[in-house]
Every structure is written in structure tokens, then in C-alpha cells.
């Protein structure tokens, strides 16, 4: 069974009152992130600046949202947050590796 099917089959049911809380719990789930990133990796048009084609990008996000059983906007938002986190962490590690200290008085 593929990762995305496992994810879809193991979603718990919820009512509309708990939608936000349920979504917050799922979106912070490592399994969700891994499945999302695995699917995104199949669509280089999303992340490769040399392959910019808005029609292909939209189709890719639609396919991903179907696989994840989430709205396109939710998948895009989570991907954006993961990229931001990765960039911050990479920059932090570069500062540490270079032996520089960040100025905490800003």
C-alpha cells in the first residue's frame, strides 16, 4: 500500500466543529509532511525554476491535493512553511559552521 493511500485510509472522521483543531494536528504530523514531500518530488515543475509552467504547476498541485485528500491551498501552505523552516535551519547551520555568532540585539 502506498504512503498516500495509507494516509487517506487512516484519517479519522471528524465534525465541522473540530475541523481547525483536527487540521492543525494533521498538518503538524511528520507522516503528512513526508507523504506531501514525496508527492512534490514527483513534480519538479513545482520547485525547479528552470521548469516554470503555470499550467503544469496547477495540474501538479491538483494531483497532489487529490492524493493527500486536502485542499490545494492547504498543501501549498504546508509546503511553503516546510521550505521556510528548511531555509532558516540551513542558514543557522551555516552560521554555526562558519563560527560566526548572530547578533541577538536587533
From TrEMBL:
One of its GO terms (cellular component) is transcription regulator complex. Pfam families: MADF_DNA_bdg. Residues 1-22 are annotated as: Disordered. InterPro entries: MADF-dom, TF_Adf1. GO terms for biological process: regulation of transcription by RNA polymerase II. Signal peptide: none annotated. Residues 35-106 form the MADF domain. Residues 1-15 have a biased composition (Polar residues). This is Uncharacterized protein LOC106748979. It comes from Dinoponera quadriceps (South American ant).
Amino acid at each position: 500500500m502506498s504512503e498516500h493511500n495509507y494516509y487517506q485510509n487512516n484519517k479519522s472522521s471528524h465534525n465541522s466543529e473540530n475541523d481547525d483543531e483536527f487540521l492543525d494536528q494533521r498538518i503538524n504530523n511528520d507522516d503528512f509532511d513526508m507523504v506531501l514531500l514525496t508527492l512534490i518530488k514527483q513534480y519538479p515543475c513545482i520547485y525547479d525554476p528552470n521548469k516554470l509552467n503555470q499550467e503544469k504547476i496547477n495540474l501538479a498541485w491538483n494531483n497532489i491535493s487529490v492524493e493527500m485528500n486536502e485542499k490545494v491551498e492547504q498543501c501549498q501552505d504546508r509546503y511553503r512553511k516546510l521550505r521556510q523552516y528548511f531555509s532558516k535551519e540551513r542558514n543557522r547551520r551555516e552560521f554555526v559552521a562558519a563560527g560566526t555568532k548572530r547578533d541577538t540585539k536587533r
